[in-house]
Design goal:
The structure holds 3 protein chains of 3 kinds. Chain A contains 12 helices and no strands. Chain A is mostly helical. The longest helix of chain A is centred in the first third of the chain and has 33 residues. By secondary structure, chain B is an all-alpha fold. Chain B has a single domain, classed as MetI-like (MetI-like fold, Orthogonal Bundle), CATH 1.10.3720. The radius of gyration of chain B is 23 Å and the shape is globular. Chain B starts with a helix and ends with a helix. By secondary structure, chain C is α/β, with parallel strands linked by helices. In chain C, 44% of the residues lie in helices and 14% in strands. In chain C, helix 2 runs antiparallel to helix 14. The termini of chain C are far apart. The chains are: A mainly alpha, B mainly alpha, C alpha/beta. At the A-B interface, helix 1, helix 5, helix 6, helix 7 and helix 9 of A face helix 1, helix 3, helix 4, helix 5 and helix 6 of B.
Amino acid sequence: MKQKTIFADLATHIGLLAYVSFLAFPLVWMVSTSFKSTGELYSGAVTIIPQIPTLEQYKTAVTEGMLLRSIWNSFTVGVLSTVITIAIALPSAYALSRFRSFMNRAVLGWILVTQIFPVILIIIPLYLILRSLLLSDSLTGLGVVYIVWNLPFVLWMLHGYIRTVPVELEEAAMIDGASRWNLVFRVLLPVLLPAIAASAIFAFISTWNEFFFALVFMKTPALGTLPVELARYTGMEGIARTGPLAASSVIASLPSLVLFAIMRKWFAGGLLAGSMKA
Amino acid sequence: MPVVLLVVIFSVLPLLRGIYLGFTDYRLGDPITFNGLKNYGQMLQDDFFWRSFRVGIIWTVVVTSGQIMLGLGLALLLERRVRFSSLYSVLILAPWAMPPIIRAIIWRQIYDVDAGVINATFQSLSFLDKPVNWLSSFEYAIPAVIIVGLWGEIPKAAVFLHAGLQSIPNDLYEAGQLDGANAFQRFRHITLPLLRPVLAGTISLSFIWNFNMFGMVWVLTQGGPGGLTRLPMLAAYEEAFRYGYVGYAAAIGNVMVVLISIAMFFYLRTQMRESTASEIVK
Amino acid sequence: MKLIETPNTTRLLPAVALLLLSVTTAYLLFSPAHRRSAQRDKMQFVCLAWQEEALAAYKSVVSDWNKLHPESEVEYIQGNWNSIQDYLVTGFETGDVADIIHYESSAIVDFGVRGYLEDLAPLISDELKTDIQEVGWASVRRPNGEFVGVPLLLESLIILFNRDHFAESGIMPPSLQHPWTWDEMRNAARALTKDTSGDGHIDRWGAGMGLRNSSNMILNLTIGFGGSYFRRENGAYVLRIGDNEKKLLSLLMEMLYQDRSMSTAGLGLSGPAMIPSFCSGKYSMLVSIGSWSRQQLTQNAPKGFRWGVLPPLKALTQQIGTSAQTLSIPKASTRKREAMAFIDFLANRDNMARVAAADWMVPARKSCLDLPKFQTTEDGWDVASRSAQYLAVGEWVGAPGYIEWKSRIANPIFQELFANRLAVDEAVKRIEEESNAVLRRYQQRDQRW
């Protein structure tokens, strides 16, 4: 038995290493590029370790343009809109999966259409609506747009997860004398934590990386978000100032990585273990 | 609920306008005139539309099935909780952490003919004797772009499926083990059926998103070489923003909605039916 | 069971959500940086500069203006070449767009045709009109006499060469007085192509050319051969490919596949993207590259790398097509006179010279070209400036559907041709057929051109 586990563990490690090498390699390359001098980038040398490591790209990244400000903008919009999206989506997803009504079918239809129809084509009417509400060129307006446009897929995913949870769990809670919404939520929430974490991370990343809306809606430079700010390093005919771009991107990736590390423990589930027995 | 109001204003209204534009001959700078089904007639004869649609289907099917299978594999590996699991689970999210703009640019660097890692490594290992033009050769462009697509999408599938795996009660696995089922059988009869709603949700959403993929492919190839990688969204973008045919682009959007909705409808119907059946069997 | 005994949780949750919502809205609405200014007090100038020296130059011109004219302050907005088109399309459609727009003549003309731009003809001073080269005006003038912008900088396609390689092979670079013909360049490329490491594979190519999206470049170079692809017959645009147009295509194909003196790596790259490889010695010449890319060389080339610029190659003539970087004013702007005053300032002799030198491009004014900065032999400035006399505007400028033609028909077919999947005659036939179909469609619909 023990030998089997060792072998299985080894195989698992190898498998995970294979995945990680494939998935993390471009990140490594990006970090490596950010420490190379522009001269080295132009020398055509292909090495992972910079020949002469330098911080000049980081200096450019931080002093030119508005990198730190745009990170702050993106961060506030991202966190706030994600929190609100999840807060709205959770009860709605519950209603969607447990009840059947016309409203629910309409919602499911709306979810589908929002995901398929090319978003770039609705940008102009959306902008006009925002402007008439005095919300164009403001981070609030952008946040509202992100909430409304992240809602469909968060709803869809949570709806799927809730359907995975057996109804018996809630019925058991209700037998114990709980009102539907109140204690049922207290029961479902721990079970759904990994699902909520997954959806929240994904909603945040969508907002963090979103480019098009931010480009069109924000006219004031100080309100720019991160992706638009990064675009300043791309130039004509497909070439880019790869050095500062890589350095800015490394800085831009740090909040996401920190967030992943924090949320990681929410993924460790197993909270359902033993709860059926009661 | 006030939320419904917000949603209607910011989402439904613009969508309705977009859908309506698909029935007009709107060109930038022109007044809008309703032209019924003329756009769709034009589309039937439009070679470019059909070519991009075909590329879109190939791309979507390959990337979606690839990302789901590989993502599920990754999720199962993470499930086993070996040492360093926590480190692995953060590192696999690397593609997500990178801003979209830099993802395509770094991959372009990696694929670069003269100074790219792939050509340099393959040549030094003698897999290749001449550098290959990965992103602009007619033979390799599509696979090269698909690999980047998979790279970007596997974390998403892995995370969502992993979360789904978490909600399956451990007792069921223990019971299965007591009954003498091996790992493979446990996977087939416990994991898969219970994962079905999450799997269906992830597959359907990934299918839709992959079909609509735009940003990264645009930066990688701009639809080249020779239009080989011009996905439907790239075609719609060019029509609307480069040539100004917003009405026609909206019509393309409408057609995509209808076709994909039909596909989704049939797919999800089968999924829903099967999941209720398995609940009874349990 | 894990149950948290909290009373009234049902009412708490939505209450918390509501509180969160109002707090954030309040924060976002009232925190100073996030408040949208009801009316802009500054004019916005969207600028596409991205090379480091150019960024500094444009920004300093803007700050000079602001010091001189505090009542008409200009705000510098950083645009970028990849997303400016989207920004402008949405900006024009919604009416919220900058007051001064920096873009390129071939692309901005389209917006002029759609009626989004102010006709600058009545606003342009005589001094400006006479001092800017005729080719600059030709690139922004519509058939109906409207000027969609003021040309600031002219693009010039130059040839870079590696001095050390030339010296090694004993090749004398041509002088301004005696430029090379295309055949002479071809011969030089053949002589320069070597396998220096002796492993049986060529690692030094005589010539490199960025053929990724080559239609614009091909058209511009074909003018020198006497060809133009686009023609007007009976007032309508048609596309005809004759021997003049075919010469360049055949020559390039022969260099790629017969002589093997031109690297096929260029099929997937734009010219400037080949500069790192040029610096590492893979190419002895980079043919037809934008003159602005010299900045990349001066900043980033390894120490001791000796390079130079060749004068434009002679076919029938040394003419090359060009487009201008332009400054335009949208019709939607409410401050057109002030915007034009800023454009006048940016386009005056000293500022234009400053910006052209910083971006390594040819200034549009004749008086700028005479300045010592543009006559020095350093870094090929004299060659670049002298090439200005050979710049011409192609027949296709202003042709309806040119942009669609480029990305739908020309670029893909050229890509197939240069990948050796088509013979020259096949490619020519396909281009003619498909182009005329598109041109017909556009001209049927459109009387605006």
